[in-house]
Amino acid sequence: MKATLYESELKVMEHLWAKGDTPAADLVPVLEEQVGWNKNTTYTVIKKLVAKGYIERREPKFVCHPLITREEVEKAHAEELVDKLYGGSNLMFLSSFVKNGGLSRNEIADLKTLIDTLEKDGGS
Question: What is the 3-state secondary structure (H, E, C) of 71-121?
Fold first, then answer.
């Protein structure tokens, strides 16, 4: 499942990842406060997520249960970005990011550690 989400869908998922299973009715005031949505907008986005297979509707009380993880969504969005802008080349993406000052000294050290770990584990 390629779990890419629109920004509106991400708002719902972020709440579910943080709080766990939540009745749809309880999401309405949260999203009204956070992003100004009305009840109809909230339910429309939830229904789209159910249709995509990202949320399961559980009864009673239309409880929203996430079927995808934040990590799956992050991975899908990262892959989409790399495919779209860098022809699928992770190296080109990373080179562009690093050359444009996207990493601090500490992050560079962490990246070196990550690369060492990947080399020891046989890469991926």
Answer: HHHHHHHHHHHHHHHHCCCHHHHHHHHHHCCCCCHHHHHHHHHHHHHHHHC
